[in-house]
Amino acid sequence: MEPMTYPSIDWLAITPLIVLLGGTMIGLVAGSLTKMWRSSAYAVSTAVLAVAALAVSIAIWVDVDSDGPRTIINDALTVDHFTVFVWIGITISLGLVSLSSANFLRRESMDGPEIYALYVTASLGGMIMAASNDMIVLFLGLETLSIALYVLAASNRRRVESQESGLKYFILGGFASAFFLYGVALVYGATGTTNIGGISDVLSREIFVRPDDAMLLAGLALMLVGLGFKVAAAPFHFWTPDVYQGAPTPVTALMASVGKFAAFAAFVRVLVSALSNRSEDWRPVIWVLAILSITLGSVLAVVQTDVKRMLAYSSISHAGFILIGLEAAGHSGDVEGVPSMFVYMMIYSVLVIGSFTVVSLVTRSGDARSDLAAFRGLGAQRPALALAMTVFLLAQAGVPVTSGFIAKFGVIKSAVVNDSYAIAIIAMVASVIAAFLYLKIMISMWLSDDADGAAPKESVEVPWSAATVIAGAAAFTLVVGVWPNWLIDASRDLLVLIN
Amino acid sequence: MSMIAAATEGSLPFPILTALIAAPALGALFTVLSSNRRPEITKLIAVLSSVFTGALGLWLLAAFEKGEEGFQFASRHEWIGAWGIGWNVGVDGISLFLVVLTGVLFPLVIVGVDPHHDEKRYLSWLLLLEAGVMGSFLSLDLFLFFLFFEIVLVPMYFLIGGWGYDQRIYAATKFFLYTMVGSAFMLVGIVTTAILAERDLGFVTFDLVQIAEGASFATSTARWLFFAFAIAFAVKVPLFPLHTWLPDAHTQAPTGGSVILAGVLLKLGTYGLLRFGVYLFPEAALWSREIFLTLAVIGIIWGAIAATMQTDLKRLVAYSSVAHLGFIVLGTFAFSSQAVSGGVMQMVNHGVSTGALFLLVGMIYERRHTRQIAELKGLQKVAPVFAGVFMVVMLSSIGVPGLNGFVGEFLVLIGAFPTARWWTVIAATGVILAALYLLWAYQRVFHGEPDEQNSTFAELKLREGLVLAPFIAIIVFCGVYPKPMLDRIEPSVNALLDRVEVVTGYAAPEASHSEPANAEGEEE
Question: Model-level pTM?
């Protein structure tokens, strides 16, 4: 019997993962051995952890700048600009969501180390997905992310909606994971490898004939279903409104930011890295998914009366916009698609966290009032908060001088460069429908009088932690809107995928 | 020929165009930051920044080189390098007077119209709006233009929605969404234009002049692109049948909002058609001219008939805008020097006269809390000065010789007659209809014996008079002596038409690119 050989490990390159894993382990142990920490202490320490991981990630970005991308741990993980960009996005989202949860969890009597540990675990899973160079590793990351999110969705034990949300997400998500895994198995069956680089090599070397080709295509289709579910693209979106509405509001923010970031990274790893030779096969599918998501998301959002549901549907439509970038990346020689996707994702993460943080304040105690009437009079009562929300909403509508315009412009440009005019026009027209939705929330905040007395009597409290998150997100939104150069320039490096 | 060659670097020691955009933007910022407890300071900031902007506009007018056709005071800085987008501003004869008009209208609105509540927010939205409008008129970069064109929606939306009348939210939302649908097409058009131009130029840029001079588009491509732009502008103008947002928005907007909306915002559409539509895609514009001429004429007649039927004075003025804007589009697509110049003049004239009309209607509403024509009667008896001012403004709107409205309309009609005869013939009846609905309205509101409620109608106050005085001055001056204005407009218009001629080989039958002074000799 041969002696077991261990792969050599590039410890430096996985420091962000280790920081998060170690930090959350220590936090869990310490948290369970000590009495309840003082207010916001869990949140702040999680945010500090996220910042540490962010700092190391930036250092690795610089390192990749000089040393170039590489695969590590026996080709299991990839360290390239793409990986690190997603890591940066996820750690920023983690930090913001943690801070925004501080007061919320205390208000809902949910405070404790467990929630934050789950936040970190979910983020860790997402970061592994982004870095994976092997389908199995990708699946492990996906499950780590998903299971943490299932638990988080159900974490408010006092609200039956939260339980329902967790259960729905768990059952449907479980199916989606199974689809994905079966897809991986079929692709393995066709190509003989689970390694992403390996699959790409095999596909570029060999011409497939039946039945291998059919197996490959079936695998591709199943993986598309699994990932389509995770990014909440129509027609795999049915879980989104219920889950987003029922889950505790900061958890919803985490799903919409970290969850989507990771799932889109997985999309790129699977489709653009592994199956780029088959882009003629998957590109039309993505085209349909994008159009369906944008139109259905926008149209269904407009008829909602609950703000969390509205934002859930709008997140479906945003996913559609990001899929435009993926569609563009499926054209040969494309240089715009992947960068535009992740500029969009970065901008949207901050926007959605900012928006849901405002929502989490407006829902007031019990996390119950997320209907439009709960927003009435916010402009008069809390003008700064309402102004920040207005900035987030205008940005989501794609109004210039906000980051949302830069995001939309980028994906539209990527579509036009590849002559996909139809998708560009459909997307822009649908975004007008979505704009109506954002206007409805703004009308409720600024222009409605409370004629029928439906607005809650309880005033909206703005704790410092949430205020920090909202101010930071609003500042980011405006700064990127005016001065997006650095983000666009950084995103150009994402093209150099290792495979 | 080349417009880029003619572009002169600013002869002023500082970038005046950038300052024109920055001053109101900073004013908006400072009003937001000012203390809630000192409303008079907020007001002072707003007045000072808008007056300063107005002064800059007048300075620009004085420093503008007469007879130059190209862009002046151009300033250009790289902004988003990776996408070839720059801060690229300049002014020529076509945009000059629109910039000045914007600079003059805003301080008058800020001083002259009282929002009644939440003045701080009102003023900051108004100043932000001014920055957006200025930016739209000055941008020479497609991306930058779109940015300003779109940003204008937000303050206008909140102005209508926050300070308007009963149906304000409906009107504001309609306005926002209508315009945004147009913009959706234009954004795709802009990106496509730049991407296709990159294939000719070898580098990506959104610079209007570089694209126009350096890129050539296939005929059918150019037509598609032209329509993508034209839809956005047609909504803004608004051209029949996309005009239905306008009566609602105008009627429901607060007085200040209506003045700005009619005065400058609508001109973004007609200006855009000239600056971007015709300049970038001359062949497509020429090819589709019959469509636009027809829609313009329908707008003129339709607007006039609809105005006649209105029972609400403000709605009447709103519909008259549809008719007047039809003349501008008619002039633009007549493709003759006189007609296009007349159209540009008419943009300014309509801004002045309709702006003043909305101010006056607002004053009537302040006094009587109604705009229903049926409830107003005999105001001339109790407020003769007010009636006199109304009369002058109304006559200017009708287009009576000696007042500014005549010059523009006359030039449009006389210029369009050789190139678009039958359209012009029908459009000319619109002038008569204008006299019909405005005089009839005047008669019902001002003549007769005032009944009980109208007998206490207050005479024009000093502040109101001071706000209206500049309008009257412009109306009379431009009516009597339009030459200085034409001298500055015509060279740029001729350069644009030369470009159309070079690209398409089309020359207007009588396009006399002679001395610009010829045109208005007859009507003085």
Answer: 0.90
